[in-house]
Amino acid sequence: MDESTRRDSTDSLPFDVFSRQCPSRGTLEHVTGRWGSLTLTALHDSGARFNELRRRVDGVSEKMLSQTLHALERDGLVHREAQPTNPPRVDYELTPLGHEVAGRLRELIQLVEGRMPEVLDARNRYDEAR
């Protein structure tokens, strides 16, 4: 089966993230995992080099950031461009799909950050009741 036939046959399939076989589950995991969501959001406004991203996404290890970027690139959300310079320079930027996903993540992050006083109050009430 060639690539176009495979693509045509999967285009007609309904994707259901609740189904264990659905490929959207893996992408959802890449996007909503701690490092994936932070990496996508960090790239939302502009592209960045690896070390710039590592500084921006505080706490991510070099290995985890590398794995995250590879997964997001494979899913078509991040574009990686290696420059033929010495030392080598690699730039990362969002694809159009990556921009759309990162924009929605950014809205969610802003909602959570804006409602943190309520979350902290709820945590305190919960902890006091235990």
UniProtKB/TrEMBL annotation:
Q: Does the keyword DNA-binding apply?
A: yes
Supply the Pfam families for this chain: HxlR
| Membrane-spanning parts | none
Q: Identify the residues that the record assigns to the HTH hxlR-type domain, covering every copy.
A: 22-120
Q: Does the keyword Acyltransferase apply?
A: no
User: From the UniProt record, which GO molecular function terms apply?
Assistant: DNA binding
Cross-referenced InterPro entries: HTH_HxlR, WH-like_DNA-bd_sf, WH_DNA-bd_sf
* Name this protein carries in UniProt: Transcriptional regulator
Q: Which organism is it from?
A: Streptomyces atratus
